[in-house]
Design a protein that fits this description.
There is one protein chain. The chain is an alpha/beta fold. It has a single domain (2-88, 128-152, 181-273), classed as Rossmann fold. Helix content is 41%, strand content 17%. The chain is built from 10 helices and 12 strands. The strands form 4 sheets. A 5-stranded parallel beta sheet has the order 2-1-6-9-10.
């Protein structure tokens, strides 16, 4: 049996809520979790011995992490595979830039400014490489290969919040662009390559859960999981549910570990993530 540890932000809750179904499909993988609020994870760090320390701001943070995980620190000794969940690799910065720009060589949509395709490509590469570098800096001297899974792409239904939530407004504008898929795929390729260049990997959202470029199907945001594995009271269109977590875990086992699910669990697995 191999051991997988998942460390990350509140989005780990979706994976945690899928643990039982995943164990039935992949009984040879023992999964453990260590979850915390986003800032504690994104500003935390791993030492060369493989101990992850959240970026505690106060005693309340420490108490919350201890209550959620049973410990303040995540120790990865004895772990065969490590999955870090919660980075966005600065895609939001690109949507902010593009809200005002059409591509010079592309379709004009009435935006106030123009940017050349060459310059945009350069910016996308720089944003991807820089943000990956910042994420890898968390690992310090940790030398084992790590797989990164981004925070889920927001649900396409987030546009209902566009009038009072900046992320939703920017995404609505981005999704309306004729070049949205091209921008997204180029950024994703650069993120994947920047990680690979340093010996790490990216777990990409499977097509079955996607509604478009940087968008998740709304049904995966229903009854979304909180950081501790409970269910959120309201749909925030950013956090996802156990079916999403199961889809991600299945993609990890199949595409990164080369494993196939148990025959007895295939029907349920396909039904939940199709």
């Amino acid at each position: 049996m191999s051991k997988l540890m998942i460390i990350g932000s509140s989005h780990v809750g979706a994976y945690k809520n899928a643990a039982e179904a995943f164990a039935r499909a992949y009984p040879d993988i023992d999964v453990s979790f260590f979850a915390m609020r986003g800032p504690l994870f994104l500003m935390g760090s791993m030492d060369d011995a493989g101990t992850f320390t959240p970026s505690f701001r106060n005693d309340k943070d420490r108490a919350f992490v201890r209550e959620t995980n049973g410990a303040e620190l995540a120790h990865t000794d004895g772990i065969d595979h490590l999955l870090l969940v919660g980075h966005r690799f600065a895609f939001g910065n690109l949507t902010s830039l593009l809200q005002d720009h059409d591509v010079l060589e592309g379709v004009r949509t009435g935006r106030a400014k123009l940017i050349s395709e060459g310059l945009l490509k350069e910016i996308i590469e720089n944003v991807a490489v820089t943000s990956v570098g910042e994420a890898l800096a968390q690992l310090n001297g940790y030398e084992k290969p790590v797989t990164f899974a981004m925070a889920p792409y927001p649900a396409s239904s987030i546009v209902v919040r566009a009038k009072n939530y900046e992320m939703a407004r920017l995404l609505e504008l981005f999704w309306g662009r004729p070049d949205a898929a091209w921008v997204f795929e180029l950024w994703l390729d650069h993120v994947r390559q920047a990680l690979a260049d340093k010996g790490h990997a990216l777990l990409v959202q499977p097509d079955a859960v996607n509604a478009g470029p940087f968008a998740t199907k709304p049904e995966f945001a229903d009854r979304a999981a909180s950081v501790d594995g409970d269910t959120l009271n309201n749909t925030d269109h950013r956090h996802m549910n156990a079916d999403f977590g199961l889809a991600m875990l299945h993609a990890y086992a199949e595409n990164h570990l080369g494993l196939a699910p148990q025959e007895t669990a295939k029907a349920t697995l396909n039904e939940r993530i199709a």
